[in-house]
Structure formats: structure tokens, C-alpha cells
Amino acid sequence: MLKVFNSDISNPDNFVVTIELVPGRESIGTSTDTLIGIAKDAFADGRISAVSITDNPGGNPSLSPDVLGYEIFKHGMDVIVHFTCRDMNRVGMESRALQLARMGMKNILALTGDYSGKGFGGQGAPVFDFDSVILTAMLQNLNQRFLLSGDPDGFFTGCAVSPFKTTEAECQAQYRKLDLKIKAGASFIITQLGYDVDKFQELITQNQIKGIKLPVLASLYLLSPNSARVMNRGRVPGAMVSDSLYNRIIAEWEQSSKKGLESAVERASKLAVILKGVGYNGIHIGGIHKSFKTVAAILDKMATIEHNWQDYLEEFKSDDKSDFYLYKQHVNLNKTKDLVKTKSQEKPSSDAKKEQFLENLFDHYPYRFMKKAHELFFNKSSSFAPLYKALAEIIDKNNKGWLLKLLVEDPFKKLFLSCRSCGDCAIQHIAFQCPEYGCPKHTRNGACGGSRDGFCEVNKDKKCIWVRAWSRLKKSGESDELSKEFIPPRMWELNHSSSWLNFHLNRDHQKNGDI
Ligand code: SF4
Asked: Is the CB of 439 under 6 A from ligand 1?
């Protein structure tokens, strides 16, 4: 087993460089040979700690990162395997993890994953049995089992975070989920892609404030007009390219391809030295599809401009004044004043009042009602709990759970929550929204990285449920509750049974009473 990446990134004096490779939809052929060639050249260059290999990016089928990774691994180059939750249930995922361990490939980037794309005959079924937090916990659990069976080298699991969210709710959702990923066992962090240096700094500041000491790699991407366009239009979940940056890139490539590529290398190098300057432990370079030469050019350029990194800061400031920043000290002073002034001087318009009224009517009051009802009927420390338990036992003993479900539970939960009858209810963890209905990825532990301006990666006309959860909790002064604790995976054995009985009879995920 190679431990190059693990040992490189664990040394705080190192500035680590990794490259992301994206396999194509073929088992042999030029694209596969090119990737192997890039990895071999990276190994020969000696400055790269590992290559990471994507797992069916965009949800579309591609050569497995496990098999491509193993070929590269055998050449001596360390590999980080991307491991998503989209295509397999927990049984398949554990089996895949065991297979990777057997092959010696234990650097994992645990991801919830993009939504399902198209395969043979149409769109694939989205599985999402786990989210990335639960996957990380599963790998950690496997590590304990490995240890018991005499294998001290467990999975070295990393996680992703996007500091590039533009609303307060999304920022909070990202950082709360990061906390859970770390608690579940993540050992390193890789950011999603963006070009706002204040946002990059925000993550470092946030980690310092919270005492998070995990190494963080920043994603960089060699932007071509095509990749910039799809990211600018939101077609790569989580990747942010602003309009002004996109326009600059188009103008550069219009001069000539040579000029475009030179500018892309220069931009990546400048951002890389800034990131090193502000405290990142390394960079994770994507967009390398043809040759290792561009990576070498970025690294060579970095060596020549590193000492001047502060000179380039202004080039990577966002020009969108409406973006939310968690820490205002990172925003330049004028922008901060503008933001505060705009907010404090605004008088609520009649439209805003109407919006507020509707929000209260359809969101806030139903939330308060459901919370009260939940406290009354589903609180195991309340004085009524023994009575509910006794009633549940009588109903269950007489096999009348289905009747309770049909006549009371289903009508209520379908009307208020569009309940999907999973039998293992998690609404209380997401401000009384159903993750089976409301989130296409069924996330239980926080938002995926794909939301954009508060809207869902998949259902683009709907708010992300975690954004709605944040609004509900904040309005009720309960924002600390968002993603406060690890929520275990749904228990599929309870599917279509009464969640009310399951709760009171200690059958569901809350049976141990610790959540
Ligand atoms: S609802 Fe939120 S967490 Fe779920 S898929 Fe959409 S963006 Fe991701």
C-alpha cells in the first residue's frame, strides 16, 4: 500500500499538489491512454502527491476509478478514489470499500455525488442510500474492523466543502455539514471550485475559529471557454465561475488559443500562490485532459511569483455585491459599508410585506405547529411517553399498525409533509421537512454541494430543503439546531410501516435515544 499522499499531507510544512483525472466512457482508447500518460508523467515529475479519479462525474457512466486507479497505482503513483453515494446502496458501497482496501487503495474522497445522469436507455435510478457524512462514518467503522483483524492501515478519508455559496443559509449548511463530516472521521478537506479569494479565506478563518486542524486542499481548474461556460451556467454542480471571469476568459481565447492557454496557466498559478499565502495546505488541480505539461507550467510559474502573492489578491475578488460573507473582515471596506447600508436603509415594500405574510402563513406557522405537535407526541422524556408506548404496544400486538397508518398517520403526514412512508421518520432533523420527498438525494446530514443561489441542484425551481430549514430555524431563534448531530441512515426494513409506532416501540433510527 502506498502512503505518499497521506504522509505528504500530514506534514504541515508541505504544500501538496494533487491532480484530478476524469475517465471517459470507454475501457480502452485514446482518452484512457492519455490519463495513464498524465499520471506516469506526474510520477516522473516528482512534485505530485497523488492523482484523484472521479466517480461517474455528472452522474454519467465512465470507466471505474477503481480499475483506472489501480493501473496508475501499480505504476507507483498514489491515488485518491472518489466514492459517491449515487449508484449503489449500502451493501454495494461496503463491498466496493472492501474491494478497494484489498487492492491497497485507501485514500478516499467521500462525496454524496452529482445527481443521476444518462446511461443505457435513459436516466439512471438515483440510489442515495447514504449521504457523504454517513459514507464517511461507514468507512470509519470499517477501519475499526480492519484494526480488529490486524490491519492497522485504515481508509484515509477526505471530504469536500464549498465555500462558494452566495446565501447565508447555504454557507451555514455547508459549514455545519463539514463539522459532521469531520466528526464522522474525515481526515482532509478538498474545496469545490470557485474563484473568490474572500470565500477561500472564509473557510480558513472558519477552521481557525473552530479549531479545525485538518489539512485543506483548494481546487483549481484550468479553465477553457467550454468549461468556463458550463460552470458559469451552473451545469457543473457546485462549481462557480462569475460572469465577469467568464467574459475575460472568452476575450483571452478569442485573441488566440495560445494566449487563452497562457492566461489560464497564469490565472491558476496566481490563485495557487495566493492560496498558499492564506494558509491552504495544497492545491487540487482539475481540467487536465491532454498532458501533464500544463500542470508543470503552473508549478514552474508558481515558483517564480510566489513571493508576490499579495499583489494578485484584487484579481480574485468577487464583483457581486449581493454575495453573503460569513466574516465581513474579508470583504473590502467599501463593499462592507455598501452591504450594511443597503440592508439598514431599506424599508419593507408592500411586495415584501406580502411575501412575509405568505411565508408566515405557509412556512413559519406550519413549522411552529409541527414542532409543537412533535414535542407533545414524540418526546420520550415527556410524562405522556409511557402512555403512548403502551398504546403503541396494544396496536402493534393486534396487528393494527396499518389501520393507524391508513386512517390517521398517512392523511396527516401526506397533507403537511408529502410523506413517502419510509417508516423511519427524519422530519425533525430538517425543520419538519421530509428528506425522502423534498431532497432528490435524500440527504439527512446537511446540504449537498450542488445548490445554487439557494435553489436545488436537481429541482432548480425549488429551494434546497436545507435552505428552507435554515430560514425556519433562524426565524424561530433555533439556528443552532441545523445539522447539530449525526443522523444515521434510513432503516429500509421499516419501509411502508407506521413511523409513529416505530418511534414509540424503539424500532427506528432513534432507538438508542441519543438523537
Ligand atoms: S434539496 Fe438541497 S441537498 Fe437535496 S439535492 Fe437539492 S440542493 Fe442538494
From this structure: yes
Q: Domains of the chain, with CATH numbers?
A: 4-222+271-290 (3.20.20.220), 350-504 (no CATH)
CA-nearest of 284, 160, 271, 286 to 221 is 286
Who's near 154: CB < 8 A, 6+ residues apart? 106, 139, 140, 142, 143, 144, 146, 147
Which of the listed residues 451, 463, 482 should we mutate to test ligand 1's pocket, taking the one with most ligand atoms within 8 A of CB?
A: 451
Q: Is residue 340 over pLDDT 80? A: no
Cα 46 to Cα 48: distance, rounded to the nearest angstrom? 6
Residue 8's H or E segment, with its range, is helix 4-10
Report how far residue 42's alpha carbon sits from residue 36's, in angstroms, rounded to the nearest whole number: 10
Counting ligand 1 atoms within 8 A of each CB, the residue from 441, 468, 487 with the most, and so the one to mutate, is 441
CA distances from 300 to 121, 209, 293, 304, 483 (A): 46, 34, 10, 7, 42
What is the Cα–Cα distance from 188 to 211, expressed in whole angstroms? 14
Q: Which residues pair with 284 in a beta bridge?
A: 18, 219
Beta-bridge partner residues of 50:
18
- Cα separation, 432 vs 476, whole angstroms: 13
Q: Looking up cell 439598514, which residue turns up?
A: 344
Residue nearest to atom 4 of ligand 1 (CA): 439
Cα distance between residue 485 and residue 181, in whole Å: 11
Q: Is the CB of 465 under 6 A from ligand 1?
A: yes
- Is ligand 1 within 6 A of the CB of residue 238? no
Residue type, 453: D
Q: Please, which residues bridge with residue 107 across strands?
A: 156
CB contact at 8 A, 125 and 116: yes
Q: How many CB atoms lie within 10 A of CB 422?
A: 22
Tens of pLDDT, residues 234-281: 888 888 898 999 999 999 999 999 999 999 999 999 999 999 999 999
Q: How far is the CA of 467 from the centre of ligand 1 (A)?
A: 9
- Amino acid identity for residue 103 in this structure: M
* End-to-end Cα separation, the chain, in angstroms: 38
Under DSSP, is residue 114 helix (H, G, I), strand (E, B) or coil?
coil
pLDDT tens digits for range 21-64: 999 999 999 999 999 999 999 999 999 999 999 999 999 999 99
